[in-house]
Amino acid sequence: MHVSESKIQVRYAETDQMGVVYHANYIIWMEVGRTDLIRDLGFNYAKIEQEGIISPVLDVRASYKKSIFYGEQVTVRTWVEKYNGIRIVYGYEVLNDAGEVAVTGQSEHVLANKDTFRPLRIKTAYPEWHEMYERVKKKPE
Predict the structure, then answer these.
(1) Domains along the chain?
(2) Is 59 among the residues known to form the active site?
(3) Euclidean distance between CA atoms 92 and 77, whole angstroms
(4) Membrane spanning segments where (predicted)?
(5) Which pTM was predicted?
(6) Catalytic option among 16, 40, 59, 115
């Protein structure tokens, strides 16, 4: 399993009046992690968008364990949790400055035609992505 790591400095605008990161910002950070993972694996999401392909979110979940505060630097760890050739589930951990898991999450996506929103079989449309995701996805325990 390949795990990508993204470093993010918590900005003041991402916090509430108590200096705690607002819950919705973790979803944005997960997107940063996902796009960094795709790039780390050698692919370019912007390029497939230029080809008329999008990757809509089908589901997203976050479980909050510890607060993160203004001024901290977080690490977003991202990996391919599940992949079946059409649906991709990405896994996430957001670590605080002390290296503790503050948030865990998952997001589920497909690749789809921008005009029709019809999902694509990744194996057919992007065989190199398919092969890589098969190689790096989390193995069943």
Answers:
(1) 4-136 (3.10.129.10)
(2) no
(3) 5
(4) none
(5) 0.94
(6) 16
